[in-house]
Amino acid sequence: MKIRPGIELGNLTDVGCHRTHNEDYYCYAEPASDAEFDRKGRLIVIADGMGGHKGGQFASAIAVESVRAAYLASDADSPDAALVEALQSAHQAIQDFAREHPELEGMGTTCIAAVLRGAELTYAHIGDSRLYLVRDAAITQLTQDQTVVNMLVQQGMLKAEEAANHPDRGVLTAALGIGSGVAAEVPEDPIALQPGDILLLCTDGLHDLVADHELAAATASPPPAACQALIELAKSRGGFDNITVQILQFEGTT
Amino acid sequence: MSKFCANGHQMEDSWEVCPYCQKTGYSVGPTSLPKTRIETDPAAAAAGPGAAVARKTVLISEKRKSPIVGWLVAMNGEQKGEDFRVRDGQNTLGTSPEAEIVVRDNTVSAKHASLRYKEGKFFLTDLDSSNGTYLNDGKETIAREELKDGDTIRMGELVLKFKCL
To answer: What is the C-alpha separation between A29 and A27, in angstroms, rounded?
Structure first.
């Protein structure tokens, strides 16, 4: 595919050092027509699937494919409404597929989907895959993990440093495909990006082993090299889970 | 700018085919669902104790066993009316606490029979039990038979009705 000018993109996935399958999945997409591109912008998605058998692989694949198809086909006025619709459609698609394939019952996935329209960023997320913004070398985590451990931290029952190595830090409170509704979180207002801003999306295979300041430091390199370096860093520290990262550097609107 | 496949995955310039594209065969639309059956993954099952190091993403309610694919209901004896869950994979039936489905009946052997769910089918196998395993009105003990929804199983004198999901 041809990516329209205005950004530099890099992405990479790795099965890690202990797993036999990669249950992460990801995509980057732009509408085909320029008119649609002006309306919809750029879509970037990561999902980290879970479930027995091949459930995890199916859940993340269905989520990414469904979010992309639904987002690009949506008639919603704003990107955030279209994103929420797209996540709902993915949730439904995962449940429908599980109903037809009982072996996959109980599969689910995290999902972070971000849209960059012009210089305007919006996003929706479920679970513990993250979206970071790096501006002037300072990193901000835009999404809040939907995990039991993070919930305890927010309630003041657990300290942040205790949470970092908590054995249950991978236990989610919400996932696409599981439960009756979609508990997607979206920001109240879109974020205006400045030229030079960097978006980093990743699964817990990365952010579990690599600290925020290390993520920020890596993005000083061009996105493709930064992705490579981050995955190697996570693997050198054990690579316990699948690792997926996408980095998008915003160069400005033309 | 690097090279990207149709799904926006970054590729080396020399690659013709993207190695990162999903291989489940899933694509959006009801007509395009994969026809292939999903099989139990032998590699994951054989991964053994070392695999415990790997951290998996799980939902809070998902720290559990394999999915339920059917039920057995006791039709007589002291457990009459009780249900037993049949899970994906191998389910041993017997009086032993190690059996997946533990029944109380002194005509049933410790490991009496096995009920296996694989690739959408259920198979009942007698495990050389003392009093035999019978299917529906059969007069002869079975060796291995496919089970269908609504079938009646008899182990010794214990009668169980089978319902699949």
So the answer is: 7
